[in-house]
Structures are given as structure tokens and as C-alpha cells.
Design brief:
The chain is α/β, with parallel strands linked by helices. The chain is about 25% helix and about 25% strand. It has 14 helices and 22 strands. Strands 1, 4, 5, 6, 8, 9, 10, 11 and 12 form a 9-stranded mixed beta sheet that branches. Strands 16-22-17 form a 3-stranded antiparallel beta sheet. A two-stranded antiparallel sheet has the order 2-3. A hairpin with a 3-residue loop joins strand 2 (about 30) and strand 3 (about 35). The longest helix has 13 residues, at about 195-210. The N and C termini lie far apart (about 55 Å).
């Protein structure tokens, strides 16, 4: 994508009350496994925005620790990178960020040193999925100066915590109210903007000269009749966790099947972006929440095997393995998000020695990706198994190592060897190490 990204994650507000007294809003846990900022970062990565700056300020320690493992979102400094900017005292400036425009101004050198023609600006408290490329295409087609991603809100919704927007039939914004107490508008800004890099630099420099500090009030609202500012409407899931009520609502929303599917498709999306050619098989173990029809609609290239009832792990896995027409099979949990190079690396390791039965991926915590979930399994002399590296820094586990067994949540197996041993033993499953796929006792 011909754009760099900026994520505004430094703000705080009284609406979150005690929840944000010791933690940045962008670092708030969502759905048990994520932080709020993960959604904007994943959208940047999946849209191939390779250079992203995160502007942090209030209670940023937890957030900065979370961001320390940029590899999880596939940002590498060779092709771009993830940059974390906190307020810095210099000879010219001794202020904290005084607003969103001022935060960008204090890091304007980063903008000037970049070469991409466009900038995607996003908030760190939004929970949503979006391909920013589609917004950029709309922005270019409209010949817009600024494009604002917007969403229609249901009748009676409280708009006092949003920017209320009105647009004409062509999508051009004709009115913008920031956090109005009362309004007849029904559309809100999602806090996502696209603008040309050079124009952003020009507008930010003008704001600095005039002691103006807020991007919404001092750019969007002030220039709405001067610049061509357009709205890009979305009808997919979006929410902002900027209040206790919305934070609760967002987390409870993940209990709904339609919301879970909206985000859990990350597993298939990531898998299908693999650098090696693959055939994907999904075994549905008697689900009743519409998952089958959803996969058929969204991923027609995926082969589906459906059971009318839950047959258990072994039967499901063995059926999938039997249907595979490849020398290797990659077993993967549906709550994972594999790196696009994952299979390529596992296959390379497998081909190093024809005696190798299985190669496991290093699995990281979804909530804290700088920490290991498992780097293989060991079996102790005391008769119990444990996950290698559980809860420890990922940087400690970078070299290949022989292990007792691999976690079947993300491991590559040689199909011929599985067939030779009869697959996963359904009768003696309880004698297996849970979730490893290796029987060690008859």
C-alpha cells in the first residue's frame, strides 16, 4: 500500500473512570486475548501498510510493553517498521502532547523523512476490521483532500462521545460536530482518516504556527468548507471502547456468533496468505451457529468436511488428514493467526531430514505476543508433560531444537508417518499428552 500509518493512542478520558487510571485505553484487554490497539495494528498489517507510528502518552507503560514485539504484526524495519513515539523534551519543545494535531507536529520529522504519498490515521481504541486499501481507492476516486471513515448509528444512539457527521448525496461532508450534546445527525466519525502526506504536513505546520492542537476541531471542522473532505461509509462491525458502557458492550459482543466469525476469520485470512501453495481443509465438528454456511460464503476455496455431531478431536483430525492429498499436513487451531512465512519455514525444516516426523511452530500468546505460549513439549521423569517456554520472552527461543512432542495447535506432520502409526488413536486419547498429537504409551 502506498501509505504510512499513524495510530493515535495517547489520549485519556473520564468516561473510562477507574479502568484507565493505570492503563492506556489502547492497552485495554478486549475479548480476553487482545488489546484494543491490536485491531488497528492488524488492519495496518493486513492492508500492507508497512511503516506505522504509534503515538503514546498517558499511562503508556503497559502499552509500550505490548508493542515491544512488532514482529507479531509483521512489521520489520527492513521494509518499514513499527515506531513508538512518546513526548520528548527538546531544545525547541518541552510540552507533552497537547492534542492529536500537536502529537503529529512533535513527530513531523518522521513524516518528512517518509516517502509514501498517503497517510492512514487511526485511533487506538477502535474495534473493527478494515481493508484500508479500499478507503484509499475511494479517496483517490473522489479526488478528496481528506477522507473520513464513518458509520451510521441506530436511532436513539448516544452520539455525545463521537464526532457527528453530515454528508451530501455525493459523500462530501457538509457538517461536523465534535461530541455534541444534541444533534440531528445519524452518522459518526470512526476516527480513521486518509490524507496526502504532503498536505498533512502543510496543515499540521499551519496548526502549530497558530497554536492549534486538535486534529478534529482545528483541521476537519475548521477546513470542512475549504478542503474537499469526504465520508467513507461502512456497514460492518465497528465500536469504540471510549466509555465503560461501550467497553462492556464490545466485550459482550464477542459472545455473539456473528461477531466472533467477523474476527475469527483472521485464521483463514492469514493461512491463505501463506508464501507456499496450500490446500485448506476445515473439519466442522457439529457446529450449530452457522459456521458452515459462513465459511462456504466467505471462503469458497476451502474444502469443508462436516459432522452432524461433535466427534471429538481425534476423529476430526484423522478425517482431515485422510482427505489431504499432500505429503505434509499442517494442523492448526482456529483461534490462531499464522505468520505468512510459517509454513515455508516448517516445510524447510521438515525436508532437512526424512526421519523427522513433526515440526512445530513457536506459538505466542495472542494477548501478549512478546511471550511464548509453547515452543514444544517436554516429558519429565516425574511423569508429567509441560510446555516449553510458557510465559517466557519469545526472544529466548529463536533456534530450532529437538523436543519430545509438538503442540497440534500449530504443527506440520509427515502424512506417511501418521498413516503408518494409524493416525491419532481415538481409543487411548486419554493416554496422550493433551493437545500434542504424540502418543507415548500403549
Amino acid at each position: 500500500m502506498r501509505a504510512i500509518g499513524i495510530i493515535l493512542a495517547g489520549g485519556n478520558n473520564h468516561r473510562m473512570k477507574e479502568l484507565s487510571s493505570k492503563r492506556a485505553i489502547a492497552a485495554m484487554p478486549v475479548a480476553g486475548s487482545y488489546r484494543s490497539i491490536d485491531f488497528s495494528l492488524s488492519n495496518m498489517s493486513n492492508s500492507h501498510v508497512q511503516k506505522v507510528a504509534v503515538l503514546t502518552q498517558y499511562n503508556s507503560r503497559s502499552l509500550n510493553e505490548h508493542l515491544s514485539s512488532s514482529k507479531w504484526w509483521d512489521f520489520g524495519r527492513k521494509q518499514g517498521g513499527l515506531y513508538i513515539f512518546t513526548p520528548t523534551v527538546t531544545a525547541e519543545n518541552s510540552y507533552w502532547y497537547r492534542g492529536t494535531a500537536d502529537a503529529i507536529w512533535q513527530n513531523i520529522d518522521w513524516l518528512k523523512q517518509s516517502h509514501e504519498p498517503y497517510v492512514v490515521i487511526a485511533s487506538g481504541d477502535g474495534v473493527y476490521k478494515m481493508d484500508y486499501n479500499k478507503v484509499l481507492e475511494y479517496h483517490i476516486d473522489k479526488k478528496a483532500d481528506i477522507t473520513v471513515v464513518c458509520k451510521e448509528m441506530p436511532q436513539g444512539a448516544d452520539l455525545s462521545r463521537f464526532g457527528a457527521v453530515k454528508a451530501d448525496d455525493n459523500g462530501r461532508i457538509i457538517d461536523f460536530e465534535e461530541k455534541p450534546m444534541a444533534t440531528d445527525a445519524h452518522m459518526v466519525s470512526c476516527g480513521i482518516y486518509i490524507i496526502r502526506r504532503r498536505q498533512l504536513i502543510e496543515l499540521i505546520e499551519k496548526c502549530a504556527q497558530e497554536d492549534r492542537f486538535d486534529f478534529v476541531r482545528d483541521i476537519l471542522i475548521r477546513y470542512k468548507n475549504v478542503k474537499k473532505i469526504y465520508s467513507y461509509k461502512i456497514d460492518s462491525y465497528w465500536n469504540s471502547i471510549s466509555s465503560v458502557e461501550s467497553y462492556y458492550e464490545t466485550n459482550m459482543g464477542f459472545l455473539k456468533p456473528e461477531v466472533r466469525k467477523h474476527f475469527l476469520q483472521d485464521c483463514l485470512d492469514s493461512l491463505l496468505q501463506s508464501t507456499v501453495e496450500i490446500a485448506v481443509i476445515v473439519v466442522d465438528n457439529g457446529s450449530t451457529d452457522g459456521t458452515v454456511s459462513w465459511i462456504q460464503e466467505r471462503f469458497p476455496q476451502v474444502k469443508l468436511i462436516c459432522f452432524s455431531e461433535n466427534k471429538g478431536f481425534c476423529t476430526a483430525v484423522n478425517t482431515g488428514i485422510e482427505a489431504a492429498a499432500t505429503p505434509y499436513v499442517f494442523l492448526l487451531n482456529n483461534d490462531t493467526k499464522p505468520d505468512r512465512f510459517c509454513l515455508e519455514r516448517l516445510e524447510r525444516a521438515m525436508e532437512a531430514d526424512e526421519k523427522i516426523f513433526s515440526v512445530g511452530a513457536k506459538m505466542l500468546s495472542m494477548k501478549e505476543p512478546e511471550l511464548v505460549d509453547t515452543a514444544g513439549d517436554l516429558y519429565s521423569a516425574f511423569g508429567w508433560a509441560y510446555a516449553i517456554g510458557k510465559g517466557r520472552p519469545s526472544s529466548n527461543y529463536t533456534a530450532p531444537k529437538r523436543v519430545f512432542s509438538n503442540c497440534a495447535g500449530a504443527a506440520l506432520y509427515r502424512k506417511a508417518h501418521l498413516e503408518q502409526i494409524g493416525g491419532f488413536d481415538e481409543l487411548t486419547w486419554k493416554m496422550w499428552i493433551s493437545d500434542t498429537g504424540r502418543r507415548f504409551s500403549d
